Amino acid sequence: MKYFKINVFDDGNDVYKNLYNVWMMTDIKYNGSKLALKNVNNPDIVIHTISTWKTTEIDCENTQEG
């Protein structure tokens, strides 16, 4: 499983910028140029497409907010 943080919240994703910023990748789209992500602490919150360049892959340790 790969985890990401979002660096650029735009294109309608700005509503998520106050959430815990750790996201689990659920899909890779358009030859890797876009991702689908699910919030780790709020798994009902899904971003169906976000450009890969707006994210950074992070270490999978310490993904749950304490």
Describe the structure.
It is a single chain. The protein is mostly beta strands and 66 residues long. It has one domain. The protein is 0% helix and 41% strand. The chain contains no helices and five strands. A five-stranded antiparallel sheet has the order 4-3-2-1-5, with no helix packed on it. A hairpin with a 6-residue loop joins β3 and β4. The two termini are 20 Å apart. The model has no long low-confidence stretch (mean pLDDT 92).
One letter per element, helices H and strands E, the order comes to EEEEE
Low-confidence stretches: none
Structural domain tally: 1
Instruction: Please give the share of residues in helix.
Output: under 10%
How would you write the strand order of the largest sheet? 4-3-2-1-5
Identify the quaternary structure here. single chain
Biggest sheet, open or closed, and with what strands and sense?
5 strands, antiparallel
Topology:
Layout: E1 3-6, E2 23-29, E3 34-39, E4 46-51, E5 55-58
Antiparallel strand pairs: 1-2, 1-5, 2-3, 3-4
Summary?
The protein is an all-beta fold. The protein has strands spanning 3-6, 23-29, 34-39, 46-51, 55-58.
Search tags:
single chain, five-stranded antiparallel beta sheet, mainly beta, 66 residues, 41% strand, globular
